[in-house]
Amino acid sequence: MLSRSMTLPRFAWGKETGRIRRAARAHVVAALLAGLLTSSASAQFEEAADSVRTGSGAHGNPRFRPTGRVLETGDGYQILESNVPSGSSILRAFGVPGDTAAVDPGDLPPTTGPHRTFVLTTLAGVDHVPLPEAVKVDLVAEYGRVGVPSAEVQINTLLIDEVAAAAAYSPDAVEPPEPGTAGRVRPQGWNPCKKKHIAKSQGVSYSLTPSSSSLPLNVAGFNGTLSSTWSSSGQVSATLHYIQKKRCGITYGIEFDRVVIAGELDLNGSDLTYSGTVFSVPERTIAEATLLNVEQGFSFWAGPFLIVISAGLDTRVGLNLSAAMSASVGLRTPVTGRYSFSYVCRESGCVAERPAENTLAMAPQDVQLIAGVSAVAKLEPWLNITADVSAGLYTSALRFAKAAVTGRLGVPASLWGYYGNTCGDADGDGLNETVSAAILDVNADLYAFASAKVLGKEWLSPLDFGASAPWELLPETPGRRETKYTYRRHLLWRDFVDSGSTALSPLVIASATVPARNYQQASYTLRTRPCVSHLAKKVHYAVDWGSEGLQTIEGVPAGTTLAHTWSSPGLKTLNAYLDRDSLGRELRSPITSRAITVEASPGTNSPPVANAGHDYSVYTNITAVVRGSGSDPDENPLSYAWRQLSGPTVALQNANTAHASFVSPATVGSQLVFELQVTDAGGLSAVDQVMVTTIRKPPREPRPCPRCQLP
Questions:
Q1: Quick one: CA torsion of 395, 397, 401, 405, rounded to 10 degrees?
Q2: Hey, which bits of 37-135 come out as E strands?
């Protein structure tokens, strides 16, 4: 059962400074949701206020340091004391002596010393706490029930002793009886201010997003990392509803009402995968030698200064080595569906606010263990040539300026191998295929850069010497700006698998069925498997459409989409493979086959309807939009195409969508006519036109200025 006991620090009542008030409210609510609704109110009050005391909260103020302690605990109640030091910013906000800030007298705290908070859990506790008699009468009238012992009445509220000070505003007033309390006269000194009960709420929420985590791995001397990925999404929220009680502008009580906890979780296609690096050898130079090192120089006098010029040529060769092995293992659990819930928790317990939605489903036969291991070793002989010139004062050792040009030629040879089923589902049967690869890849890399240093200031500028095919510009190596213009040329590609490395077979992303309403048209996406990372920026895919011919298309490894119209219905087979890449590697990968069912086209096709919208006027020199639409009686997919027929020429943006935009001409009275063509999947089309006329923008009216008017 949830308890509604809670504490309210002194800085949470009245019209405090906004910074302190927001900080206190945020920490109090956070503590409430984390457990402040339990019986240990004192300890949790300390925890909630701790970050505000230390200034560590979102709006922490290190000068505001309240303290608190438990004064008394009894049957159905607890009394807490909190103390606000003099000179703190909150007291200055209330207008302590020496502060000229204008403060409403009704918001001034009655004292600046310790103040008490009364935490009441049952009605029996009312008899034991030193509250004004009128407050006790209020509580009994509000919570008392005939025939029920007061010890069994859960009231779970809190009060502060500032309510007693309210009498000071009207010491001789007697409050008239309220409805339902005939004959009950309030004691002398009770303030007749009207009570206000204000319903409020505070909430927190947490979004569940696809996430990953990693931890160190040390097994049998192999160091690496182990990472997990969870691809689900959703949200969980908790909202606290409470009632704030005020009299004479003073908050004297807080009553807990309910907590609403709700959440939803989408598990469409979620997988849980672990992957790690078994070992890694960073790239390092294992051999280096100097072929040629020549230096010449001369000197001359510039006034009283002897300038020494030296020029040099340094040629070095070396051998770099790097190696790595990575492995991954996981459980593919293609869970589909959604789960949502919403519960309302009150003093009596928690009940469902609405029926829980549970559409989660998972076929046991679809659970698949996925695992793979990949290894790569790279050996790179290199040649480095540097030409430099420097200037020194009196001697070359006192160098104050130097400039150099460096060129580097490397021949990296990579041996890459893979085995496993973590490289995707190429044929669309719902299961990852087990594939393998063993490939030797040899290339030539070339880059150059210039550097300079004058009086301690250095510059580095990569040089782009504009190499053309068969050289290809590579991405810059992170942390090495001099490699910004690195060009690569393919030298050797060797596949050691007799039938070809199956890891090179492309993924074919497509629907297994072409609906009849598509008139045998469909789109297909080709991409390389995610475990392949040794290809150029562009690749050539080859697609065999069976009896309908062979098609080669240039695309990118990340995915290229192409459209095809089947000439006849029936069961078709699509065969695709990687042909080559832009560096000239002859890949000739194994084939990926997909079975496609093409449904027969409908017997008749009705033309679509185009609507370009009504003629209208726009101001000059603004972005205008022509909003069209289309409909098809056969519910076929539609395509849109805008074009300009007449008027001053403008550039249409998004002309292949239903809504196109353009910048209107600067000439008033220009008339522009646009035509919208709507085409369905069967090839039938319809057109409609719209006219747009430019008008002058009205002058802006001056804003009234009351202070500018003369008396």
A1: 120
A2: 67-74, 77-83, 115-122
Within a 10 A sphere around the Cβ of 492, how many other Cβ atoms? Answer: 11
Q: What's the CA gap between 453 and 458, in Å, rounded?
A: 4
Q: What is the pLDDT of residues 108-126, one digit of tens each?
A: 344 445 667 777 777 787 8
Strands (E), 605-670: 609-611, 616-619, 623-627, 629-631, 638-646, 659-663
Cβ atoms within 10 A of the Cβ of 333, count?
Answer: 15
Number of Cα atoms under 13 Å in the Cβ half of residue 545? 15
**Residue 408: count of CB within 10 angstroms of its CB:** 18
Let me know the angle formed at the C-alpha of 221 by 220 and 227, rounded to the nearest 5 degrees: 85
Answer yes or no: is pLDDT of 255 > 60. Answer: yes
The first and second tokens of residue 523, run together, are 């789109």
pLDDT in tens, 535-582: 888 999 999 998 888 999 999 999 999 989 888 888 999 999 999 999
| pLDDT at residue 71 in the model | 81
Q: Which residues pair with 671 in a beta bridge?
A: 693
pLDDT greater at residue 284 or residue 84: 284
- Of 128, 156, 175, 158, the C-alpha closest to 252 is 158
Query: Is residue 67 scored above 70 in pLDDT?
Result: no
Distance CA 270, CA 366 (A): 12
Coil, strand or helix: which one is 470? coil
pLDDT of residue 520: 83
In angstroms, the CA 596 to CA 689 distance is 40
Half-sphere exposure of 627 (CA within 13 A, CB side): 4
Helix (H, G, I), strand (E, B) or coil at 59: coil
CA distances from 297 to 293, 313, 390, 401, 450 (A): 14, 12, 9, 14, 21
* Angstrom distance (rounded) from CA 140 to CA 134: 10
Q: Any idea what the Cα angle at residue 414 is, between residues 531 and 593, rounded to 5°?
A: 35
- Residue where the block lists tokens 């509803």: 241
β-strand partners of 228: 213, 274
What torsion do the CA atoms of 489, 491, 495, 499 make, to the nearest 10 degrees?
90
Question: Are the beta carbons of 574 and 545 closer than 8 angstroms?
Answer: yes
Which DSSP state fits 220?
T
- Is the torsion defined by CA of 506, 507, 509, 513 positive or negative? positive
Alpha helices by DSSP H, listed for 576-636, are none
Is the sign of the CA dihedral 155, 157, 158, 164 positive or negative? negative
pLDDT at 106: 39
At 78 the pLDDT is 79
Rounded distance, CA 387 to CA 311, Å?
A: 8
**How many residues belong to the chain?**
711
Residue 76 exposed, middle or buried by CB count within 10 Å (0-12, 13-18, 19+): buried
Q: Mean pLDDT across the chain, nearest whole number?
A: 75
Cβ 576 vs Cβ 506: under 8 Å? yes
Give 699 or 83, the one with higher predicted confidence: 699
Q: State the Cα–Cα distance between residues 563 and 552, nearest whole angstrom.
A: 13
Distance from the Cα of residue 221 to its chain's centroid? 37
Cα distances (angstroms) measured from residue 79 to each of 5, 161, 513: 12, 10, 73
Taking each helix axis as running N to C, give the angle between helix 41-53 and helix 18-31, from 0 to 180 degrees, rounded to the nearest 10: 140
Separation CA 158–CA 97 (nearest Å): 31
- Give the span between the Cα atoms of 93 and 79, in whole angstroms: 27
Q: What is the pLDDT of residues 449-501, one digit of tens each?
A: 998 988 778 888 888 877 777 888 888 888 888 888 899 999 999 999 988 99
Residues paired with 405 in a beta bridge: 387, 450
Do residues 270 and 232 touch, judged by C-beta distance below 8 A? yes
Report d(CA 214, CA 427) in Å as an integer.
Answer: 31
What are 606-649's pLDDT values in tens digits?
899 999 999 999 999 999 999 999 998 888 889 999 999 999 99
